[in-house]
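Sequence, please.
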């Protein structure tokens, strides 16, 4: 079969569209023929050796896949051949077929597309965990989302509204701000003079929960815009700059800095993760959240697509499709 292969930790353009062995079927393995493959910012960090995890090389990157079951192990009972399913794991999704453990498989309900399922797994999963468990967002609180037109940012906007928050979305261009507004944001802002803008739109109170997948100068502005008792969530560093936090700000403003590592959460708290996914799927079926799919591309185009995401050129979820996929 064909897959995107990282021969070594190297620049994204060195990824290869090449032959790769078919998945092995163990006792609890589910083999999924991909109809949609999710592309995520951490995939680009991983192939360059810049992520927290460094798998043995060569490897196939990719965390999200949705499609149909083509084979199952002898001890698999939750799904059968022909079922529509989705799965999230740390590696292996940029391929025509993926073998995953049964515990990582989620049956797809009627009415949910494979592309939307991929978006719900990592992007919405990260934001849901961040706002519910880590940020403990409450109805009526003010949520500020940086990078609000990205995958996790748009998810945070929609989930924030589903949880009853007043949502301020921050994005770099008018086009991206329009996308965030369409996703339900109450207020949209740019990054210029962000600290002063947050003070103005919150009436001087500051932000209750800050959501930051960007880092750099945007983090600094958001930290200075936090309110008393606030929770500033560290999601990632899409700007490429990891900020240095002046801890005196947390002291005088009385807010908490909270790290969010969704991948570790899914492994350390699998039952809570499962409950989160049930809630997300319920919100999706009720129309409370709806992923924004920017576009679908051929699997062979993965290096170019991933490079654009790393340069913050995408708004919404980007999907890869193997040749001949439905």
């Amino acid at each position: 079969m064909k897959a995107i292969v990282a021969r070594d930790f190297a620049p994204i353009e060195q990824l290869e569209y090449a032959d790769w062995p078919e998945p092995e079927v163990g006792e609890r393995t589910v083999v999924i023929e991909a109809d949609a493959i999710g592309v995520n910012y951490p995939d680009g960090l991983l192939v360059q050796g810049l992520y927290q995890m460094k798998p043995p090389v060569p490897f196939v990157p990719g965390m999200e896949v949705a499609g149909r079951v083509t084979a199952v192990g002898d001890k698999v009972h939750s799904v059968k051949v022909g079922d529509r399913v989705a799965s999230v794991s740390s590696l292996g999704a940029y391929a025509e077929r993926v073998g995953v453990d049964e515990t990582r498989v989620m049956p797809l309900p009627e009415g949910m597309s494979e592309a939307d399922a991929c978006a719900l797994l990592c992007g919405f999963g990260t934001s849901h965990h961040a706002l519910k468990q880590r940020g403990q967002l409450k109805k009526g609180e003010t949520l500020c989302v940086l990078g609000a037109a990205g995958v996790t940012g748009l998810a945070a906007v929609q989930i924030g509204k589903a949880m009853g928050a007043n949502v301020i979305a921050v994005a770099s261009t008018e086009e991206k701000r329009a996308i965030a507004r369409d996703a339900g944001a109450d207020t949209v802002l740019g990054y210029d003079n962000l600290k002063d803008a947050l003070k103005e739109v919150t009436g001087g109170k500051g932000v209750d929960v800050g959501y930051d997948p960007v880092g750099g100068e945007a983090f600094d502005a958001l930290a200075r815009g936090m309110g008393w008792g606030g929770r500033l969530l560290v999601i990632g560093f899409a700007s490429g700059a990891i900020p240095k936090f002046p801890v005196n700000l947390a002291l005088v403003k009385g807010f908490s800095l909270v790290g969010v590592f969704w991948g570790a959460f899914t492994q350390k708290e699998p039952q809570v993760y499962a409950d989160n996914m049930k809630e997300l799927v319920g919100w999706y079926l009720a129309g409370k959240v709806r992923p924004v799919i920017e576009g679908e591309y051929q699997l062979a185009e993965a290096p170019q697509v991933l490079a654009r995401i790393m340069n913050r050129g995408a708004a919404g979820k980007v999907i890869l499709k193997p040749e001949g996929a439905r």
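The first strand starts at residue 2 and ends at 5.
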